[in-house]
Write a structure and sequence with these properties.
Layout lengths: L1 E5 L6 E7 L3 H13 L3 E12 L5 H9 L16 E8 L2 E4 L4 E2 L12 E5 L4 E11 L10 E13 L9 H5 L5 E3 L4 E3 L10 H5 L9 E16 L5 H24 L1
Antiparallel strand pairs: 1-2, 2-12, 3-8, 4-6, 4-8, 5-7, 9-12, 10-11
Amino acid sequence: MKVEYISSDDENVISLIVEDVTAPFVNAIRRIIITEVPVYACKELVVYENTSPLFDESIAHRVGLIPLKTPLDSDESSRMVTISLEATGPTTVYSADMVSDDEEVSPIDGGFPIIKLGPGQKLSFNAECCVGFGKDHARWQSGLASYKNYPIIKIDSKRCNLCGRCSTACPQNILQMTDDAINVVDVMMCTFCKSCMEACTSSNEETLIKVIPQDDKFIFKVESFGNMTAKDLLTTALKMIENKANSLNQQILG
């Protein structure tokens, strides 16, 4: 297996080119990232006072979907973390107003709005947060992952008359015309829409451009919700696959 890392300035996004693997393999990594990486989230909200315009259940739903920073060694046995909030209006309550009893587990950003309180209105609660999995509820989903086959774009340069129709038709603008050829600027941006193939045909209706997906080469992208960096998210998912494979091997071999 060959892996090429595509650099990014955002620690919550990572892109890779993975070669000499199958679609089921990269799809397994995708599914683990989305459904089985353990992260913290609010499971229950204990409301002590709420004179705001929203029901307790609505506030609990909002708080539950605020991503929380999660230590890498977290698992199902990790302890319950309590995050508290007390606010009195008039004010807008943000995630920054929430106070955690564990400095390693807290909202990833203080700018998530929870509710706007009017004069004299009060909100006080404890959020009981625990580790969970995306397969059980969206509040525990750690991020997004996607993949696509690596595109191969073949242009019949001998018969191409440089009419430019393919370049105009491409919605990603990855076909660039020069005086003597048509060049592919960024093949990774190709979405396999095949608009260039439809626009570029010879007199006998034979296309002069072919867009072919490579069966054993993929572009893999991971986007973390901020519970952990994209690199840590991917590393955790790979370790989980390794553990599953070792467990299966032990069961087979006895």
